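Section 3.1: Structural characterization of target chains.
Under the original work plan, the team committed to producing a structural model for every single-chain target entering the pipeline before any wet-lab resources were allocated. The record below documents one such target. The sequence was received from the expression subgroup and is listed exactly as submitted; it comprises 456 residues.
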Amino acid sequence: MPGRRMQRINVLLLREISNYVLENQPPETGLLTFTAVDTTADLMEAKVFYSVMGNEAERARAAEQLDKMRWELTRSMRRLESLNRIPHFHFIFDDTPPRRAGARFIEKTPQRHTAHDVCLMASLPRLSPRVRRKVKQIVGVLRNNTSFFLTGHERPDGDTVGSELALASFLKSLGKKVTVANIGPVPKMFHFLPGARAVRSAPRITGKFDVAVIFECSGPDRMGNIIDLKSQAGLVINVDHHIHHGLFGDINLIDAGASSNSEQLCQVFSMAGHSLTKNEATALYVGLVTDTGRFQQENTRPQSHRVAAHLMEAGVDVAEVFRHIYATRSPAALRLMSRALGSLRMVAEGRVSVLRLTRADFTETRAQEDDTEDIVNQGLLPPTASVSFFLRELDNGREVKVSLRGKGRVDLCRLAVSFGGGGHKNASGVTLEGTLDDVEAKILKALTPELPPGEK
C-alpha cells in the first residue's frame, strides 16, 4: 500500500488524466474508464490503468488515441505546482474488477472500506459540446460562489430529494453555505437518506443567495415561487431532463437524453473531479431508480445502468434502498391501495384503466399523500390496458391531481403538457381544477383520440 503522499499524488494524477481525456477523447474510442494510477516513489514512471466499454476495435482505437495524447497530456500536467516532476505515463489496459474506480487510491480513509468514495471521472458517456460547456460553467459557479439555495418542484420526488441532498453534500464539502427547501415536505419513504429530515418545507424562504439551483421545474411557478429568483438569487441554474422544459435560468442544463437530474449531477461531479461519498451515491441512486421506475421506463438508457454501477461501487446498499422505497408500506397505505383498486374501472373497450381517490378515502383510512406511491402503476396490470390514469382529489377541494402511465402506445407527456403538466412519454402528470368527474371527462376526451386504431 503506498504512503499517504503517494496516495495523494496518484489521486491527483488520476483526476487530471481523466479530466484531460474527457475533454479531448474522440467519440469513436468507446467508453473509457481510468481505474487507477500507480506512480513510482521517484516520480519517474506512472502506470495508468484503464478499461474500455466497447468491442475489440474500440479498444484498439482507445489505445492508439491514448498513445497520441501522451505528449499533450504531459504538457498539460506541467501547470501542477504540487508536482516538481511529471512522470512518464504507461497506459495499461485493465479489466480486473478489484481495481475498478481506483479504490486503492480514492479511499478517504483506507480503514473504512464500506464508505470509500468513487469518482466517476471520464467513465460516463461523452457529452455533446453544448451540454459539456454548460456542465463546465456550472462547476465554475459551484466553486466560485459562497451561498446556495436548492429546490425543486412543489411535490418533491426521489429525484428531486436525491439531487438536492447530493449537491448539498458536495457544496458543504467545499465549505459553502447551503439552504435546501421545497414547498412540499420530503416523502417519508426517503427519510432514511442522511439529511432528508433536515430539508425544509415552507411556502416562502427569505434571504439572498449567490446561486439558486432549481431541479426539474418548467418555470418558477413549478417550484411554488418559494423564492423570488430575480431579487433573491444572484445567479440561477436550471437543471432539467424533460423534453418540455423552460429556459428561465442564467445557466440552463437541459439534457432530455438523461434519465434523471441525478444522472445529470453525476456529470457535474465527474467534471469537478469529485469523489462520491456513500451517502451522496445513495441519494443519487434513489433519484435514478425512482425516476426510471426501477429501470423499467422508456427514459432508461444504457448509460443509466452504467451510472448505477458506479454508484453501487461507491457503496450503495441496493437492498436497503429497495426495502425503504418499494418494500415497506404502512397499514394506512395498504388500506388506501385497497380503496383505489376498488374504484378501478376499465374504459375505452378495456384499453384505459381509471383509478380514483377522494378526500374521504384519505380521512377514513388515515393515509397521507405519500401513501399514493405506486397506485397508478396497478392500472397497467390488466393485459388489455394501454394507459392507466389515477385521479386524486386534493385537500383544497378545488383541484384534482392526475397521474398517467402508459405502455408506449400514447405520448402521455404531450397529453399532460396540453393541460399544463409534463413528464415523460410513458409517465406524466398534471393538476387540474374541477371535480373528479369533470377532470376524468376532460382527460378521457383528450386521450381517446390518441389511442391506436382499433383500441377506442
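The radius of gyration is 24 Å.
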